[in-house]
Design a protein that fits this description.
The chain crosses the membrane at residues 7-26, 32-53. Keywords: Membrane, Transmembrane, Transmembrane helix. Helices cover 92% and strands 0% of the residues. The protein contains three helices and no strands. The two termini are 16 Å apart.
Length: 62
């Protein structure tokens, strides 16, 4: 459980970093950053969905 949370956390960080770098290129990083702050619950929902999907795939492998 802890390992999957760590994996999802790292994945989210990489996704945010990628979004931020792309946004820097186009010059609207601050707008995306404010969007993420205002919609933090969306990120949590995405993380939960990712966890559920990962658990499903792990159970199917066993």
């Amino acid at each position: 459980m802890i390992d999957s949370l760590k994996t999802i956390g790292i994945a989210i960080l990489f996704i945010l970093l990628a979004i931020f770098l792309v946004a820097q290129v186009f010059g609207f990083a601050s707008r995306i950053f404010y969007f993420l702050i205002e919609n933090w619950y969306v990120i949590i929902v995405m993380a939960v969905i990712g966890l559920v999907l990962k658990n499903k795939s792990d159970k199917e492998k066993q």
